[in-house]
Amino acid sequence: MFGRKSGAGAVKSAEALRLVNVTKSYGMSENAVKALDDVSLSLASGSFTAVMGPSGSGKSTLLQCAAGLDRADEGMVLVDGERMSGATEAQLTRFRRDRIGFIFQQYNLLPTLDVVQNTTLPLKLAGRRIDRARAERILGQVGLGDRLHHRPDTLSGGQRQRIAVARALVTDPSVIFADEPTGALDTRSARDVLSLLQETVRFHGATVVMVTHDPVAASYADSVIFLADGKLAGQMTAPTADAVAERLAHLGDPDHDTTPHHTDHHGVPEYANPYESGYRSDESSTNDYRFDDYSVLRMGA
Amino acid sequence: MLQLAFRSVKERPGRFAATLLSAFLGAGIVMMFNSLHDTAAQAGIDAQSEEILSTTGGVVGSYGTLLVFFAVASTLTVNVRQRGDEIHLLRCSGATPAQIKRMIMGEAAFVAVIATTLAVLPAMLAGRLLVSSFKDSNQVADNVDYAFGSIALSTGTSITLLSSVGAAWLAVRRATSDPTTTAAKDAARARWRTIGGITALVLGAGAAATTLAIDETEPALMAPAAYAAVMTSIGFAVFSPHLLRALLAIYGRPIQLLAGVAGYLTVHNMRRRADQLAGVLMPMILFTGVAIATLYMQLIASDALDAGGVQKTADDKNLESLNLVIVGIIVAFACIMLINTLYAATSYRNREFGGQRLAGATPRQVQIMVAVESLVLTATGVTFGTLAGLVGILPYNIVRTDTIWPEQGPATWITVTALAATVTFLTSLGTTRRSLQTPAVDTVTAAA
Ligand SMILES: Nc1ncnc2c1ncn2[C@@H]1O[C@H](COP(=O)(O)OP(=O)(O)O)[C@@H](O)[C@H]1O
Ligand SMILES: [Mg+2]
Q1: How far is the CA of A154 from the centre of ligand 2 (A)?
Q2: A208-211 β-sheet, strand order
Q3: Quick check: is A268 in a domain?
Q4: CATH code of A229's domain
Q5: What residues of chain A lie within 8 A of the CB of B264, using their CB?
Q6: Is the pTM of this model over 0.90?
Q7: ipTM score
């Protein structure tokens, strides 16, 4: 659906991303917070992985270290078999912009550039040839074919996030990272963006790693990685929203979890409310409740 | 809401440093020169002392006050505009536009009052120093006492308050305007801007014509000429978004060809943000215009005396250097305001730079973009500042020497231009450098 991968550098290994003993702390020695504690994982090329966990469990940190937006204190990151290196921001940027796409919750588009210009910007910055036709084709595929010369602030949140998806795709990266990509979107737009991410994996062969706290969003992925207190706390393949929600609700429990339970400030799960009040995937209730809406849709699909 | 304003100033003093500094310096200069009027108005002062004091107070006080008014206003405008996020947040949490207006204007008034209060003592000391310099060069009788009174205080307070609160009012009106009626309001605003800009240019031309009509021996001849330069600068500044767009239409391609992707970002950025950039161009045009006009007029005046075969006494020479010092103070003020505005404008661009870096720009590419932007801004500012300066210089030169083009060489112009360029590059790049030390992710997630 998203066209062929371009020839140059297209030889990709079967393993798109590998983290080896990655550790990252914030703050000074005494009251340092270990945001990531010895995390190792491996993701196959062409996989769609969701990362879940309570607020403060290190999801964003994991993504930023893996994407080269932040530096791990210890351990190493390999993208497409190549070790991420770079002592300076410039070196990291160069490594990143050839291999990694990033989608933010807040879109992070340049307001002074139009849709096409925003999409092709990473290529321009990297000094790569601009294949305009290809960029426009990708934009057509994400549903923005008739908005090529609009500016982001004249578009809806869903449309903006689709520009971000197109921008992440245009460099044909080894891995696309997305941090809560649907966090600022309404139900329908969120569903569109998730389907779009799914399609990029299925048809384009992209590798996507997405942080989310929404079990329904996670159910679009092939597998889910759970994080708690900066440590890996399990994995689930072929996730359903119900199973993910169930697992999350008990992530802190000692009998369900290998990680020791802490009662510090990390212990407050951001998904607590909906699930404690009962997660009702079988009710076709109001549309403004995102979890229900998705689940109905998914079950019907 | 006024309470909210106080709290907002108290909690983030750094944010108000720029406005406080500009209001402080502005109030200081206005009060310093207007205290000459207070001194001249004392009972029992001799005619010659009175004349020199009120002439200096009148000449420098008039265009200096005007300069202060617009310089303080432009800093305030930049400051309020940069706070779009905060204003948006306030609106989202239920503040009405009227409440936000009161808050921002309350803050501006608060800062202006503090600044004026702080400036009283320094202005007094500087004014006293100025009067004693006049005494030293025998322009003012030794028995004249320095006075700092109602004229200094009232002009200082009113100018600072009026420009701060007025600019805040104009800027916040835009920031809080209801999006549904924006098109019509935008048109109305554009019309008012055009009217304001034309008025400034007409006043400038009028002042230039007045200069031509004044007798060459009139000591206050410099006043209308300097006034013409300031007013024309303001007029150009008002139209500077259009001027900038016109320049970009011509030079956009070459810039992109020469500077690559940084040039590309700059050109798009400046085209879209031309209106905001006017806030930076204002102090730049004012600085260049006022510096060129006042410095060249001093040179012309002094050379005209030489040419007239007048044997300069030691006192004449002292007066000449004193006049240069006075002009220097005004020029230095304009220069500090330029730095101040550039700093304020750049330090609020963390998010923009962060976005570019996350899209794949290296820190160096961001720096090059800012450098190209500084180059375009300097070129625009210096061009129109020079034109504005000439509107003051030419009539003055015609009256004093009966020739159109001043024979003083380009050295002063080159110095002023170099200073404008240096200040612009150093401030913009230095501030950008600091901003680049924040991790890019933090700049986009912090406000999220
Ligand atoms: N820039 C930072 N400075 C200090 N602490 C941080 C910073 N970023 C994250 N942390 C801390 O690291 C932990 C993990 O944060 P994060 O990765 O953002 O979690 P999540 O995305 O799962 O909510 C939290 O305790 C958080 O407070
Ligand atoms: Mg997070």
Answers
A1: 27
A2: A100-103, A175-179, A208-211, A48-52, A223-228, A231-237
A3: no
A4: 3.40.50.300
A5: 124
A6: no
A7: 0.77
